[in-house]
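Lab notebook, page 48
Experiment: co-folding of the full assembly
Goal: obtain a model of how the components sit together before planning crosslinking
Operator: M.T.
Materials (sequences as entered):
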Amino acid sequence: MKCVVGIDLGSTTTKAVILDEQGEMVGRGITNSRSNYEVACQVAHQEALISVRFAMLERVGAASENGTGERVKALVPAVKSAYRLELYLHGLDDLEQVIAAQMGRSLLNRGRASLEPSVKRILAMARENAPALFAANAPRRSDFFRDLAGAAYVAGAEKLAKENGEEFEPLVAAYDRAILEVETHALQQDISTVLKRAVNRVAREQKDGEPVALALVRAADQALSQPLHEVAFVGTGYGRQTLPFPREAVRSEILCHGRGAHRIFPGTRTVLDIGGQDTKAIQVDGHGVVTGFQMNDRCAAGCGRYLGYIADELNLGLHELGPLALQANTMVKVNSTCTVFAGAELRERLALGQRREDILAGLHRSIMLRAMSLLARSGGVNNEFTFTGGVCNNPMAVKVLRELVVQNYGDKIHLNIHPDSIYMGALGGALFALDDLRADKPSLLPTTWAAGAAA
Amino acid sequence: MTTTTTTVKSEKEAQKDRSQARQKEMIANHFKKLARAKEDGKKVVYTFVPGNLAELISALDMLPVLPEINALQSGMRKRSGAFIQEAEKAGHSEDVCTYVKCDLGMLKKGNIGPTDEPLPPPDLLLLSYTGCFTFMKWFELLREEYKCPVVMLHVPYQAGGEITQEMRDYVVAQLRDEVIPVMEKVAGKKLDMKVLQQHLALSRTAEDALVQVWESARHRPSPIDGYFGGVYYVGPIFSSFRGGQDAVEYYKELLEETNDRISKGLGPMTPDGVMPKEKYRLVVEGPPNWTNFYDFWRMFSREGATIVSSTYTRVGGLYDTGFRHDPDKPMESLADYCLGCYTNLNLPSRIDLLEKYIKDYQADGFLINSVKSCNSFSVGQLLILRQLEERTGVPGGFIESDLVDPRYFGKANIENRVQSYLQMLEARRNGGR
Amino acid sequence: MEPTGGAPGRTAADPAADVLEKARVLAEDLALNTVKAWKQKNPGMLAIGHLPVYTPRVMFEAMGCLPVAVFGAGEIDIIKGDSYFQSYICHIPRSTVELGLGGQLDVLDGMVFPSICDVIRNLGGMWKLMFPAKMSAYLDLPQNFAWGLGGRFYMGELKRIAAETEKRGARPLTEEGLRRAIKAENARRRALAELDALRREEPHKARASEAYLVARAGGVMLAEEHEKLIREFLAAARKRTGRPMDNVRVVVAGSFCEQPPLGLIKTLEKAGCDILEDDFQLGLRMIDGDIELKDGMPALESLARAFTERGRDTASRYVPDDTKGQALIRRVKECKADGVVFAAASFCDPALLDQPMLEHALTRAGIPHTSFKFAENTGQFQVIREQAGAFSDSVRLWGGQAA
Amino acid sequence: MAENTQLTAGLDAGSAAVKVAILRSQAGNHAEVVATSVQRIRRREVAEVCRIAFAEACQRAGVQPTAFDYVASTGEADQMDFAHGHFYGMTTHGRGALVLDPATRCVMDVGALHARAIKVDERGRVLGHRMTSQCASGSGQFVENIARYLGVPLEDVGALSVTAKKPEEVSSICAVLAETDVINMVSRGVSTADILKGIHLSSAGRLARLIRAVGAEGTVLLTGGMAADKGLIAALKESLSEAPSKKKDAAVTIDVHAHELSPLAGAVGAAALGAFRFDQLRRAGRWDVLKGAREGAAAAV
Ligand SMILES: Nc1ncnc2c1ncn2[C@@H]1O[C@H](COP(=O)(O)OP(=O)(O)O)[C@@H](O)[C@H]1O
Ligand SMILES: Nc1ncnc2c1ncn2[C@@H]1O[C@H](COP(=O)(O)OP(=O)(O)O)[C@@H](O)[C@H]1O
Ligand code: SF4
Ligand code: SF4
Ligand code: SF4
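Observation: model returned without errors.
Model output:
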């Protein structure tokens, strides 16, 4: 199968989208950018390839013989979970090794001896809880190893601290230091081996006989052996300049976001993208071509990172912030322009006895107000209006935006938000790559990425 | 570079060099005269570009100094940053016009002009204040430094989009009753109307040629760049040379060069030589950035974008809508000149003019360079952007920089925007790809 | 600050509480409800908005119009307005456009943009395009003050605008009408002068933040009613008891156009400054003294001459010789101030370009001064409080020069 | 106690910590620091922390809360009922710096959220100042965030930073976004010491600009919480010696250092000014002011 790749190297997350020759989205992957940019791209790319394989597995599985097709297909979600579980367990093992190795080198290894058994116990607990974490329909905060392992690790450390009176900080610090290396190691895993292990795990669990299990294994073999030819790719996003890509393969993120959003919602005329470190307001025409834009960057005020910082201040997860703010009774006016000052203001207001929910509501509003003025500057909000980027996962942000749009542009504006909103930039990139493919000037992936492509 | 283009190019360069070399020489001469002004017993007048009374000054045998031109020169020679900091150290805010600060900083550092020769202090500050309130403050500040006479010419704003008889009368009365008498007193001689008329006639000849050069951009490819190249073309007429024989010669030569390029089907000269292929035709509103002038220019020229017309080149006179200095009506035409500069147009008129340029010169797009310094230009530019897009259907681009403050030229950022804009034009042209 | 005296707060016991509340409502009447009510009571009459700094309100009053000061929008969220202005432009045009597009100015039949700077000038042009159905007039105040030159031009400007307003349905400008309006205006001026005097003499009885509200309330009223309001406040304030505080006495300069948020004025007061004089509502005080009516001189000429001959030397005027600094020093001496606080709106070229000249003059005269910038929607006063506090500390402890 | 000697206290409430200093002096001169106390606020109520810190200092000094001639507050603590009077941060840092080092002519105060350079004369009067506002880049929080991310306790930051061999500066000016840069450095294997030094250098660059902007000459005393950070001092020395505008600034010698009590400079200055003001008020016969507050102090502790 021939396909094209779009990669959006964001400041916070890196996204990859794979399209087939017909322009259908066949795979997508996401990872956190919080490590080496190139590694992030490779991981996102790898994730996208995996999702292609899963899609294939579903297709091939459904065509299995002897009437097993439907049942094999129904097993695919379980295989996905099993695959994640395998990766996760593998990651935990690696984490243990890395922590041990780092403690040997660390400058600040106070009481290494006392830490090591604790780390072992924490990770053992994490392993124990892992299957439940990946059970079908289990709610998960995130799919990133960093977040999952982090949560499990912190929970374990808290438990030890509470029960045995152990020092919490050094334990967590050990994790913080190790995680980056573990994330980088993840790339070196052979994806098809892990996938096969996952398939076998699911197959083993099939009590009622061999045909389904066998069909699943066969389907997996088939899906994995189909060749994938990635013939064109385009990189975009915040960090695109740092990538070892040829100049022709790099597109402005503005163009990509506009085009991607327009592809999903063809009625789109205005796009708002709020990512981790920048906010963009983009106007597109009927073809998805950008006609105007405004962006602000280089300051964390008014971007996704602002919310992240506030969440840290409150010891909350990012995903908890919005729902909490939704419970506000009133909106406190937040004066601080700077993220750090807003954090201080938050503390001050809490000390004054104001409700956390109400302050949070005000903080959300202050971000959206900035976005509104950027939108206004780019040419206003025109129907239809598509909201993309990580922050659109935040329900309070969406609510405030909706209110502000109605207030300022009337209630005729249709607001689009798609579950895949975060992929718009990568999708736009992939569409440009498809242009290249069709114009017969495909640009090949860097050779260093061949390992990923082999999956 | 292939051999064939090399020959054409070097020939072109030689030709271009002729007018440019002439201009350089003219400027050098002028600064030499200024350096010798005291010895020669010549009186020196500081004045501004928009609405300058060059013919009056030369008719009274005085020498003009244009602080704005000095500031932009300092910008191009990468000295403005230090000058601005000097002014800020003396208490000036970072928010205000950087031309003013650059000039004050230069003054505080010894008033060494762009040719490294010292500039003489003014014998008169001629505040002909057209289209910008900052001019008024600027000379209030200079007066504090020089304690020399000032004479102000209040030029009313064309708020209604036209020059009314009342405005003309007010300006003429000020010229007659205040400006000329003060100038005569400083010059130590009476104004000879005949001499003034001669200068006005020379102005007119030069102006005719300049308009032809501007309008040559209607050709495809355009033989000139009406913005980056354009600032060179308007140099003599903006400043000290209007009304002199030198300017007439310069424009004659420039016009010949231009016509020659048209006949050969050549594009404009750029910092990298003759532009090989005209891919985009743009109109630009707003002054250029001087600190990174060539970087800025290359962002366009390397992508094949020619600026076919611009409004900045009209701040020293809006000749292409018909105005000429007129020896038969000396006072009236001086008044009309001051009242008619681009900076004195109200916003609706500015939009009309830009619309006309976009249509007349068949532009693919237009770009606004909004400079932080200049409220006179910048306030309302976002409305200009919207209105022009609406009226012409041609997409506009918007970038922000500054005149001479290097801190406000974010190269990567501007480049990103320019590239996105040009990619957008390209995508539009390909019909939605 | 030492607890050495009590400022009268807005407590129930404060005799001025009611009138201050009335003034606050009027001063913060962004929806122009007062104007709507006036128009209802005076059907067919026009309400004409005007921007800072100086517009001859009397002329409009003489034509049966209600002149309405449109001096920004305080702390409201600016969204639409921001879309028209780059970040390095002051706040006034944004908030004005925000009000315009938000419909709050719909009740006005026209707008006057007096010349003060390029921002308001260009805004006038924008208004023409954004609200083509409404009258939008640019008032080119002369910068040449010779009567035969600038004076004549100014008379022409006034007549032109009067004619334009008349075309929109205002009563014609008559000699008699103008004389009557000028008399009312002069009465208001005297009341304001009394208020200024009270502030100077007994700052603990009339605080700057209060005088500001009372003055600003006049933006939506006729001169006659405003005079009543001022006198009502004066009477109440004089009844106040309380002792002077251990504060420093300052003049605030530079905020003549974009108005500082009330919180900022209060912050200065809290940081130990008694503000004896300011130019917050400069338009009302643009002309020194009365507009003198003389027999045999047309009232319009009196009005024009008052501006050209007795206009204050401030940033909005070109002053041909070194008198701006002298004028400020005179003001400081007259009210026996200890120092000057420059508070200029961010990106306000007229104020910021003048400031170094004024500072030098003060430094030469040995008068302490300090400066900062604000925007009408500034919500954080921490930095300003620190700076003003350091200034007042320094003057209090050493009486000397500070920055 | 000698006739003209006063016992005074200064109370400095910041955004991160409350500092108290007790001083014995003669109208602020010949000052001797009797006792001090520092309490990190850590999300507690500021007024409460102030009381705790004040009581702690009194205990250390072995004096009763009512024994003071003057209690002066500074920083955020302007409404403390047991203080006689309030002085603003710049005034107190200026005066405090002179108590710590009489040669000081410029104070560089770097706290959790702000940084300001204050030029003072030999009496501690503020002659000029420059500060960061509305933006936390270059302040203590900046360093604190990064240290937290790197898992380095604040007390170790300075010691680690000075061991750096190949410091790498962050590209982002923002206290929040710089984290991303740091994360990248970590993943590229840049050592913790080099990262910290890089952070210090980029902060120092900003501080040096403030110092130059006020036209400092001679002794610059670093005050505020960050004065405890040896790494920052070292970086600041480097930045100042670089002097980009070579010719002119070469003539100006700037010597920057810190005193062990530098983080308490605000409190020390407040106490010294309190003594000065006490003297002024005493001479003016304003005993009413002084007595009222003393009763408040007794009630508070
Ligand atoms: N589940 C979530 N709930 C709320 N906010 C989220 C969630 N996931 C991501 N975000 C927000 O999205 C931001 C990242 O957006 P993203 O579009 O990935 O940025 P970038 O493109 O710059 O990498 C984060 O800073 C965070 O504020
Ligand atoms: N030992 C230390 N090393 C480095 N930084 C420190 C140290 N102690 C305190 N700090 C920094 O000082 C800051 C607090 O300074 P402080 O002047 O007390 O601030 P504020 O007055 O705003 O509370 C903290 O943000 C912290 O980063
Ligand atoms: S504001 Fe603009 S027109 Fe006025 S002096 Fe500055 S650059 Fe020139
Ligand atoms: S605040 Fe200043 S710059 Fe803004 S409109 Fe008023 S005078 Fe002009
Ligand atoms: S520190 Fe605050 S104001 Fe400064 S860049 Fe970062 S978020 Fe923006």
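Interpretation: Residues A 299-301, 338-340; D 135-137, 173-176 surround iron/sulfur cluster (ligand 5) (CB under 6 Å).
Next step: discuss with group before ordering constructs.
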